[in-house]
Each structure stands twice: as C-alpha cells, then as structure tokens.
Amino acid sequence: MLIGIEKRFIFVANTKTASTAIERVLEPLADYRHGGSPQRKHVALSQIEAQAPQVFRRAGCGLEGFFKFGVMRDPVQWIWSWFRYRKQPEVESPLPPDMSFAEFWARRDWNIVRANGARNLQSEKFLSADRSSVLADVILPHEDVAQGFTAICEGLGLGIPALPPANVSRQKSPPDIPADLIDEVRAHYAEDYALLARLPDLNLKGMEGLRRRINS
Distance of CA 137 to CAs 64, 203, 206, Å? Predict the structure, then answer.
C-alpha cells in the first residue's frame, strides 16, 4: 500500500493485479509505503489507519480525506494466476510440478482459504471490516488497468507517465480448469463477483468525486 499525503491518494495493493507495476510508478510520489512482507504490502483499507496512525496524524484526516483506489481481477483468472505463479520452483511455497489445478483447488491452502477458515477474497482489501460498505473510491477492473490508472493519475495531477499495458489474459475460463469445477470456483468467490458487478457505478461516482475535488 502506498500513501501520498500531499496529493491525498492511497493505492491498495491487491495481489496478481499489476500492483507491483503501479507501485513502481507511484512510489516516487508517495510519502509512505506500507511494505515489507506480503502481509504488510497487501494490507486492507479497513486496517491501515490502525497500522499506520502516524500517517493520518500528519495528514490531519482519516481515510475519508484520501482518494482510495486499487485493482480487482476476475476471480477465476486471479486464482489461476496464483496457481501458475506457484508452479515455479523458485517461489516461496511452490506447488509440486505435476499438480493439476483441480488438485490445487482441492487442497484448499492459503491462496483459497485462510488459517481461520475464512475464504481468501480480493474484496476484503476494499471493504469495511464488517463488509457492509466499500471503502475504496475506485476499483479498476484488471483488464482496464492501464487506461483507468492513467485517468486517475491525470485526475490527481500526478504528472507521471502512463502505465504500460498489463499482460492480461482475455480468457474467461483458463485452460486446464475442468468445466465442472468452474462453477464451484465462481461460487467460492461469489462476494468478489458481487463487488465486480458494482464497479461501473462505483467507479463512475468515484471519478466524479475526484474531478470535483480537483476543481474545487
């Protein structure tokens, strides 16, 4: 997570959504980086005030004073990306090279279910702790990340180059995921799909709010 106090932005680093590329662009303009371990880098918006109170004391406001944004990916594509990533032998906690996606899904490890039994969802990065409200102003769909990020940077007056286009798969159902498993995967991520369905209206309102702030 990156926080720019002068420009009043918070970038939420979701996993497998081009967050590292965005951070490389934004980092010179950020006053605070909540980084280090993956758990710190990918902290949820609902936790950041408690974990970095000094930032908000310096800013003189809470979350409501910042433009908050991040990226979400189609959940099937998202977990498929995790699966492919962990098939690499050099990564932390690699999967067996001969493991199929179906076997990976049946294993229900930390990519899929947390230690406390809760589902590992992208949406938790952007929602309040009780999941009753969206804390982010804009959540970019992964397939539109380059164009959307450019619009946000222009709105914030950051004066930075456009993000290079992300390597985005256009496949709705990645190869090697059995058709009878797709519905199970989608049901597991039903809350993420519900939030994705809200993004057109959410992002329209969020960008309108950003324009009003800049023009005020």
Answer: 10, 7, 5
Answer yes or no: are the C-beta atoms of 34 and 26 closer than 8 Å. Answer: no
Q: Give the domain extent around 160.
A: 2-215
pLDDT category at 175 given cuts 50, 70, 90 is low
**Whether the Cβ atoms of residue 32 and residue 54 lie closer than 8 Å to each other:** no
Around 160, how many Cα atoms within 13 Å sit in the side-chain half-sphere? 21
Tell me the two tokens of residue 73.
């990916």
> Domains in the chain: how many in total?
1
Taking the C-alpha atoms of residue 61 and residue 63, their distance in angstroms, rounded to an integer, is 7
The span from the CA of 128 to the CA of 178, in Å, is 34
Percent of the chain past pLDDT 70, that is, above it, reads 89
- The residue with tokens 């910042």 is 66
Alpha-carbon distance of 48 to 56, in angstroms, equals 10
pTM of the model: 0.91
- Which of 130, 153, 131 lies closest to 140, judged by CA? 153
pLDDT in tens, 59-98: 999 999 999 999 999 999 999 999 999 999 999 889 999 9
The residues facing 33 across adjacent strands are: 2
Q: Is the pLDDT of residue 169 over 60?
A: no
